[in-house]
Specification:
Layout lengths: L1 E7 L3 H12 L4 E4 L6 H4 L15 H14 L3 E3 L5 E4 L4 E4 L4 E9 L12 H4 L4 E2 L2 H4 L7 E6 L5 H8 L4 E6 L11 E3 L4 E5 L6 E4 L2 E4 L2 E5 L14 E2 L2 E2 L12 E3 L10 H21 L3
Parallel strand pairs: 1-2, 1-6, 2-3, 6-17, 7-14, 8-9, 8-14, 9-10
Antiparallel strand pairs: 4-5, 5-6, 11-12, 12-13, 15-16
Helix pairs in contact: 1-3, 1-7
């Protein structure tokens, strides 16, 4: 199915774009890890969202996602791994499927922090961002998983069914019952070690030998997402209409720059959608 617009990310910017798309009767797909605004959900109290003071971040995100889903948006609870431009559309690859849309709005949130040392050089050489894609390569082996996503627990269990041992570094509460071969590790990951292939993970608590390492994040470094996407530092470069360097692709919210505020993200989500709608009219199939 060819959608008019694919929205990458289900935080305030993505939900706002989706609601506006529904009002414009555009065929819209929203892709998110399933955590929907994870950064905002961690906020215990938000005092400056207009009209809704004294709400927790989780309460606000629940309201945003309920509004977005009630508008009839098609939601795919999977992370977008890559986007490939075609002549008049884009392919968006997830761990489960590939989707096609005429235009894309990027609202993945900010890519907090830098890649681990050694990550870029060893990506695809024992380092992976996709358990479904690459888990079978490590059947019967020892692997590591570094994640900040509660929704990634399903992938941890999937990997545990393949690997001999899973060493897990996670910064969220874990279920009490875990597969017997999952070991929760101490320390903060610092550096991936290996000559031509990942062989170990150096952390603040020591070095752990591994056959492979899975990095399951809410947002990966943005320059990996789409060929030709230009950045300004850690942010996606956009013009006054929130258009990126790739024709037909727009960006909004934290990924498009400071300030990291809910009001700004929601407003940009709407503006990016209106810009994308204009682009679609000017570039018919």
């Amino acid at each position: 199915m060819l959608y008019d617009i694919a929205i990458v990310g289900g935080g305030p910017a993505g939900c706002s774009a989706a609601v506006t798309a529904a009002n414009r009767s555009l065929g819209t797909l929203l892709l998110d890890t399933g955590d929907f605004g994870l950064a905002l959900r961690k906020s215990p109290l938000v005092k400056n969202y207009l009209g809704l003071p004294e709400r927790s971040g989780a309460e606000l995100m629940d309201a945003f996602t309920a509004h977005m889903k009630a508008a009839g948006t098609t939601v795919v609870p999977h992370k977008v791994l890559s986007i490939m431009p075609r002549e008049k559309s884009f392919f968006l690859a997830t761990p489960g499927d590939v989707y096609e849309a005429r235009s894309v709005i990027l609202c993945p949130g900010a890519a907090h922090g830098k890649p681990l040392e050694g990550e870029t050089a060893l990506l695809g050489k024992g380092v992976s961002n996709c358990a479904t894609c690459d888990g079978f390569l490590y059947r019967g082996k020892t692997i590591g998983v570094v994640t900040n996503l509660p929704s990634a627990w399903e992938e941890v269990e999937f990997l545990a069914g393949l690997a001999a041992e899973v060493k897990l570094w996670a910064d969220f509460p874990l279920p009490e019952e875990k597969p017997a071969n999952v070991t929760v590790m101490a320390g903060k990951p610092r550096k991936i070690l290996g000559e031509g292939k990942a062989e170990a993970l150096e952390t603040t608590a020591g070095t752990e030998p591994l056959d492979g390492l899975f990095l399951l994040r809410e947002t990966d470094p943005l320059d990996r997402l789409l060929p030709g996407l230009r950045l300004d530092g850690p942010f996606i470069r956009v013009d006054g209409n929130l258009a990126t360097s790739v024709p037909g692709v727009f960006a909004a919210g934290d990924a498009a720059g400071y300030p990291w505020q809910i009001n700004k993200a929601a407003g940009e989500g709407q503006k990016a959608l209106l810009s994308a709608a204009s682009w679609l009219r000017e570039n018919p199939v």
